[in-house]
């Protein structure tokens, strides 16, 4: 399945011109970026940079997928940057306590899911606006991560902990003539594989399952969904749990790459996540959004960072550029809706 | 120039070429051949309207006739696709309400457009606040606003918060705002719908006063009886088209109704083919929601259409929502097919076979950004999914297509998003949703509001067919002709209580109104 054919459910048949503009504006933007950067930098369009870029994009994508689910319901999740830090720290500390790595990471992911569950319950049962509920969780989760670690990185986690973030599939290494190993093919990093699998699974969930359909229904018209017998509370909580679980996974992957659990990791990542979803056509009003769009959005941000870096553009200019891209793409989205 | 005899249809300003070019023309506003399209709907089709200075011109038509759309074109909210608006002798294309307001055209909407948390003065001068240097000159603003309020003789202080005012007073604030804008054309959309008798009297005095000042007033109202008191001429619209313009003194209310309906009342409703049996399929006893309604009870028999009549706010919708589990109830039993139901949420009601088609489709009934297909299957998605929650695409498509066919829903495809359908077809989509769910009792809350006459007829036929098929149909409607034309019995509500249950054949519009206003009540 190519990433371009996962359009909003049921709209494949009758895509109108404006939808196509939006869909292809993002994709065309991506292609143009690749084209421009490959002209300005020789090392941009190489296998090893491609792998690096995909790896860098995974964390945005993981969080972006969660953001997509939440935003489709008309909500927002600001807590994911902190939740990923908490999840990674939990996983790291569990390993320190002697827990096997797989189990420890599962624990980390579950703790992320628990944060999402709390978000969902606070939003649906205490009826707080999602912005406030997840803003609170953003601070609480960060605080817990710093408190339990004493604000110190948890290191000495062993090679096994680094496997998920640093290992790759199909890596081909030859011994060179000089005796040093020569990397023929850098392999596909595990996080990239996880990202591809997750993208496919979530795209199917959104398009083909009742849960996915209900996410759209709740975001499109909550009262209509409720009166149709949709369990709105459960659907919303589900969306935040998915977001929390993905943040937990993202935390484990990031900490694994560093082989250190950093309680300060992931600050402001929630903004990248929301940006990737929005660039990919997810509407903050709710009811509209796709995983394929978010993948494109995540890669646009990833490629901008990577390409601008390679061209020696300062990180300040990068921020300016990405900010402008967000404004521009949402403006296109507004144009589409204004008819 | 036109003569003074306007009894003849079409003999008005728009038919006289060149009339608009004279600056001292008595015509202040002329709309010629205005056409406005929305996706799937032709809202206005070559409509005409003209207005003199110092005239009250009534615009009449049924719901969905296009009155509000025409007013929105004139006041700049919508732009016409074809035709033009001539204002004070010039062709104008207002791009926004502000644009039209600046030129002197002000509209007072049925739903008032005031900001509740600001004061009366702040509302009147919103976006054009008098300034003293950088700051708002609050003193001047409140004093100026008070002048207009006093002119209207309303007992409101300009420093009061709008949210503390009654709806009637808010309406007066809107009129004060229009005065402060030096409106030369004032459009009033159903201004009396929420006013008491004495407030209406006061409003009419104000209208008379504005007339003498040369303000042209376009007056939209469903209360035809009150037109006689203030209106000079009447333009009737039907199904988005212009019908006629007449001097009110030349015609009767019946003439207006005939022009609005376009056919006699008998033809508006299909012949009923279902007959009530003695079998009781649904019953509600002693239903109460504290502070909202109490002591509500009724039964529904197989083959019967039961009407809920009553004035706005009588509690009909609230009762239906409580039965459906969408709102809480304090007490009462609901019995379906002889079995007592415990309903705590819409999910319980839907499981039991009760459906509620809400009065505001776009707010509560339809996910407008989703497809026809997704809307039809929304309440019963599990029927087209496997146990893992995977939707079976072809089963879903077949189900949706089936209901599109049998309900004759006009849509280019089942994948069309619901927003692009006309009101009548949207209503059919919602009906399809509940039929797919195998509902046994359907509450229809104002099912024909805002849809055109032809589509209404189709909905009525559908109600009859459902009743014939043994499905319980409860029709909640504010339109008494609908009660008389479609129901077998009618439950009349007054301020949260059932005041009467009447046999439709043996009752009249007047008798229902007596029960609805609490003048008469059944002993029970």
Helices of chain B, by number, come to: 17
Shape of chain B: globular
What is the name of the CATH topology of the largest domain in chain B?
Rossmann fold
Shape of chain A: globular
- Looking at the structure, the CATH topology of chain A is ABC transporter involved in vitamin B12 uptake, BtuC
Q: How many strand units of chain B?
A: 22
Runs of chain A in which pLDDT lies below 50 for 5 or more consecutive residues are 1-15
Fourth-level CATH superfamily of the largest domain in chain B: P-loop containing nucleotide triphosphate hydrolases
> How are the strands of the biggest sheet of chain B laid out side by side?
6-9-10-3-11-12
Give the proportion of residues in helices of chain B. 25-40%
Enumerate the spans of chain B where pLDDT stays under 50 for 5 or more consecutive residues. Answer: 1-24
The run of helices and strands of chain A is: HHHHHHEEEEHHHHHHH
CATH class of the largest domain in chain B: Alpha Beta
Count of runs of 4 or more consecutive helical residues of chain A:
13
The overall strand count of chain A is 4
CATH level-1 class of chain A: Mainly Alpha
3D architecture notes:
- The complex is a heterodimer of chains A (339) and B (524).
- Chain A is mainly alpha-helical.
- Chain A has one domain (21-337): ABC transporter involved in vitamin B12 uptake, BtuC.
- Chain A has helices at residues 17-40, 47-72, 80-96, 101-124, 130-149, 159-166, 190-208, 210-220, 222-227, 232-258, 269-279, 291-310, 315-337; strands at 168-169, 172-175, 181-185, 188-189.
- In chain A, the strands form 2 sheets. Chain A has a two-stranded antiparallel ribbon with strand order 1-4.
- The longest helix of chain A is centred in the C-terminal third of the chain and has 27 residues, at 232-258.
- Chain A starts with 16 loop residues before the first helix and ends with a helix.
- The relative contact order of chain A is 0.21.
- Chain B is built from 17 helices and 22 strands.
- In chain B, strand 11 (233-238) and strand 12 form a beta hairpin.
- Residues 1-24 of chain B have low confidence and may be disordered.
- In chain B, helix 4 (138-151) packs across helix 5 (167-180) and helix 13 (393-406) crosses helix 14.
- At the A-B interface, helix 8 and helix 9 of A face helix 10 and helix 11 of B.
């Amino acid at each position: 399945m190519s990433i371009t054919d996962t359009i909003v459910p049921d709209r494949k048949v009758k895509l109108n011109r404006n939808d196509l503009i939006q869909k292809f504006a993002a994709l065309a933007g991506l292609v143009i970026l690749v084209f421009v950067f490959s002209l300005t930098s020789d090392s941009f369009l190489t296998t090893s940079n491609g792998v690096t870029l995909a790896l860098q994009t995974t964390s945005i994508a993981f969080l972006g997928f969660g953001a997509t689910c939440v935003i489709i319901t008309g909500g927002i999740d600001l807590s994911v940057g902190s939740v990923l830090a908490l999840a990674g720290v939990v996983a790291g500390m569990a390993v320190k306590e002697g827990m096997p790595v797989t189990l420890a990471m599962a624990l980390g992911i579950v703790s992320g899911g628990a944060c999402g569950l709390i978000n969902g319950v606070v939003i649906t049962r205490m009826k707080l606006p999602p912005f406030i509920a997840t803003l609170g969780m953003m601070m609480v989760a960060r605080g817990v991560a710093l408190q339990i670690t004493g604000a110190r990185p948890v290191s000495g986690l062993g090679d096994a902990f680094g496997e998920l973030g640093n290992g790759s599939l199909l890596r081909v290494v030859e011994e060179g003539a000089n005796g040093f190993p020569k990397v023929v093919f850098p392999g596909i990093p595990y996080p990239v594989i996880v990202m591809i699998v997750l993208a496919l699974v979530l795209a199917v969930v959104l398009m083909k399952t009742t849960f996915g359909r209900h996410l759209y229904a709740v975001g499109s018209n909550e009262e209509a969904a409720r009166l149709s017998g949709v369990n709105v509370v459960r659907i919303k909580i589900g969306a935040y749990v998915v977001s929390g679980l993905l943040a937990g996974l993202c935390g484990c992957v990031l900490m694994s790459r560093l082989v250190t659990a950093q309680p300060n990791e992931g600050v402001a990542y929630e903004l990248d996540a929301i940006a990737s979803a929005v660039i990919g056509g997810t509407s903050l009003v709710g009811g509209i959004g796709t995983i394929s769009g978010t993948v494109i959005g995540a890669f646009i941000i990833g490629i901008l960072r990577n390409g601008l870096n390679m061209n020696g553009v300062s990180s300040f200019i990068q921020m300016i550029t990405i900010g402008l891209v967000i404004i521009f793409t949402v403006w296109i989205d507004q144009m589409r809706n204004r008819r | 120039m036109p003569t003074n005899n306007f009894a003849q249809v079409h003999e008005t300003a728009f038919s006289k070429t060149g009339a608009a070019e004279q600056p001292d023309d008595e015509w202040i506003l002329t709309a010629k051949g205005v056409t406005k399209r929305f996706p799937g709907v032709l809202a206005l089709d070559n409509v005409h309207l003209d207005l003199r200075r110092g005239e009250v011109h009534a615009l009449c038509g049924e719901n969905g006739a296009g009155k509000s759309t025409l007013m929105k074109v004139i006041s700049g909210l919508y732009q016409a696709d074809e035709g033009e608006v001539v204002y004070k002798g010039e062709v104008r294309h207002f791009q926004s309400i502000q644009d039209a307001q600046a030129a002197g055209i002000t509209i007072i909407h049925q739903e008032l457009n005031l900001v509740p948390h600001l004061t009366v003065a702040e509302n009147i001068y919103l976006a054009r606040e008098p300034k003293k240097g950088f700051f708002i000159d609050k003193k001047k603003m409140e004093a100026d606003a008070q002048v207009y309020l006093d002119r209207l003789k309303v007992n409101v202080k300009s420093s009061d918060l709008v949210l503390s005012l009654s709806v009637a007073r808010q309406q007066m604030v809107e009129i004060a705002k229009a005065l402060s804008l030096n409106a030369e054309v004032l459009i009033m959309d159903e201004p009396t719908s929420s006013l008491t008798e004495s407030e209406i009297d006061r409003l009419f005095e104000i209208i008379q006063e504005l007339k003498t000042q040369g303000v042209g007033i376009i007056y939209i109202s469903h209360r035809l009886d009150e037109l006689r008191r203030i209106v000079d001429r009447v333009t009737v619209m039907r199904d988005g088209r212009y019908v006629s313009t007449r001097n009110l003194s030349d015609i009767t209310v019946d003439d207006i109704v005939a022009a609005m309906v376009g056919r006699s009342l008998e033809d508006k409703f299909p012949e009923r083919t279902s007959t009530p049996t003695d079998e009781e399929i649904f019953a509600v006893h002693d239903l109460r929601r504290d502070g909202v309604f109490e002591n509500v009870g009724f039964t529904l028999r197989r083959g019967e259409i039961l009407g809920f009549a009553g004035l706005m706010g009588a509690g009909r919708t609230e009762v239906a929502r409580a039965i459906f589990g969408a709102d809480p109830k304090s007490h009462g039993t609901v019995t379906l097919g002889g079995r007592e139901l415990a309903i705590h949420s819409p999910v319980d009601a839907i499981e039991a076979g009760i459906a509620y088609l809400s009065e505001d489709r776009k707010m509560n009934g339809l996910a407008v950004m989703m497809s026809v297909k997704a809307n039809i299957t929304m309440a019963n998605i599990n029927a087209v999914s496997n146990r893992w929650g995977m939707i079976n695409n072809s089963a879903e498509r077949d189900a949706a297509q089936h209901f599109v066919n049998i309900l004759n829903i006009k849509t280019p495809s089942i994948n069309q998003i619901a927003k692009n359908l006309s009101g009548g077809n949207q209503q059919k989509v919602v009906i399809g949703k509940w039929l797919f769910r195998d509902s046994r009792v359907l509450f229809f809350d104002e099912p024909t509001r805002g849809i055109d006459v032809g589509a209404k007829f189709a909905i009525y036929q559908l109600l009859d067919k459902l009743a014939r098929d043994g499905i319980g149909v409860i029709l909640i409607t504010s339109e008494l002709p609908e009660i008389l034309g479609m129901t077998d019995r009618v439950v009349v509500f007054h301020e949260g209580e059932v005041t009467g249950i009447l046999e439709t054949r043996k009752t009249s519009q007047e008798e229902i109104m007596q029960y609805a206003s609490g003048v008469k009540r059944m002993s029970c």
